Amino acid sequence: MRKKRIIIGISGASGVIFGIRLIEYFHKNPVFETHLAWGTEAKKILSLETKYNFKEIESLVDYAYTEDFLSAPIASGSFKIYGMVVLPCSMRTLGAVANTTPYNLLTRAASVCLKERRKLILVIREAPLHLGYIENMHKVALSGGIILPPVLAFYNHPKNIDDIVSYTTCKILDLLEIEHNICKRWGDDQR
Questions:
Q1: Residues 6+ apart with CB under 8 A from 149
Q2: Residue 76 CB: number of other CB atoms within 10 A?
Q3: H/E/C letters for each residue in the chain?
Q4: Who contacts 190 (Cβ-Cβ below 8 Å, separation ≥6)?
Q5: How high is the pLDDT of residue 42?
Q6: Which of 19, 62, 155, 164 has a CA 20 to 30 Å removed from the CA of 79?
């Protein structure tokens, strides 16, 4: 049985811990084959926001690619995947995907997902939003992509940042239709 291939893109936006948490989930689950696309800016943010270094993160995935490796398998529509998640997704990355102007491997792989009608989830990281950002989100949604801002939920009584990151991870896994028991669901305590 072939493993389910998942592409994880980490752009140069704040919130790299979201990408790390998803990578950690897939690393523990041998059903998946993970492909990481990220670049220099993402690695800089990693060192600013976390205790991790890029070699540690790359050791948790099956394949890691630099942003300029445009001949990587994930740049082709003939490379079958289960889905792609970009988290965090910068507004530059969103704009490139929305306007079909890929400038690196991450944006090329995301554009391929849209053209091949494969699942693409963009975890956008910006606030407030001006009309240009909203229009780009609209374009991606019209093309079949899913926009998922990392919005807080309070019914699960988050106690720390880890709980907040876990909730977003749950939403991503739900959208990918992957069973998990990471977080409490609304109504679970009412049955």
A1: 123, 124, 125
A2: 13
A3: CCCEEEEEEECCCCCHHHHHHHHHHHHCCCCEEEEEEECHHHHHHHHHHCCCCHHHHHCCCCEEECCCCCCCHHHCCCCCCCEEEEEEECHHHHHHHHCCCCCCHHHHHHHHHHHCCCCEEEEECCCCCCHHHHHHHHHHHHCCCEECCCCCCCCCCCCCHHHHHHHHHHHHHHHCCCCCCCCCCCCHHHC
A4: none
A5: 95
A6: 19
25, with CB counted inside 10 A (0-12, 13-18, 19+), is buried
Q: Which residues pair with 63 in a beta bridge?
A: 35
Task: Compute the CA torsion angle 121, 84, 77, 99 (nearest 10 deg).
Answer: 40
Tell me the domains of the chain and their CATH numbers: 4-190 (3.40.50.1950)
**Rounded-to-integer distance, Cα 167 and Cα 81, Å:** 24
Task: Please give the radius of gyration of the chain, using alpha carbons only, rounded to the nearest integer.
Answer: 16
> What is the model's pTM?
0.95
| The pairing of beta strand 83-89 with beta strand 146-147 | unpaired
**pLDDT tens string 106-161:** 999 999 999 999 999 999 999 999 999 999 999 999 999 999 999 988 888 889 99
**Average pLDDT along the chain:** 94
